[in-house]
Amino acid sequence: MTKEDARELEAELARLQQEHRDLDAAIDALHQSPAPDLLRLQRLKKRKLLLRDRIAFIEDQITPDIIA
After folding, report:
1. How would you label 46-58 residue by residue, b for 16+ Cβ within 10 Å and e otherwise?
2. pLDDT tens for the chain, residues 1 to 68
3. Could you tell me which of 12, 26, 39, 65 has the fewest CB atoms within 10 Å of its CB?
4. What backbone torsions phi and psi does residue 37 show, to the nearest 5 degrees?
5. What is the spatial distance between Cα 33 and Cα 14, in angstroms, rounded to a whole number?
6. What is this structure's pTM?
7. Alpha helices, DSSP H, located in 1-68
8. CB 66 within 8 A of CB 24
9. In degrees rounded to 5, what are phi and psi of residue 60?
10. Residue 62: which region, alpha, beta or left (left: phi > 0; alpha: psi -120 to 50)?
């Protein structure tokens, strides 16, 4: 992996982590509303899970494999 590739992955990782935090805040706010939209809540949670998986994948790409 080149340094340019690593920089691009780190930038995407930062963007995805920010989106994940934003979704977390949106989900919390929706939970606290008097009549939460359950369909919207389900969609936000699903998107958050997809982001978590993508974040884990990118972190694995950035972190070099260490053979013990």
Report:
1. eebeebeeebeeb
2. 788 988 999 999 999 999 999 999 999 999 999 998 999 999 999 999 999 999 999 999 988 777 76
3. 65
4. -80, 105
5. 29
6. 0.85
7. 3-32, 38-62
8. no
9. -65, -35
10. alpha
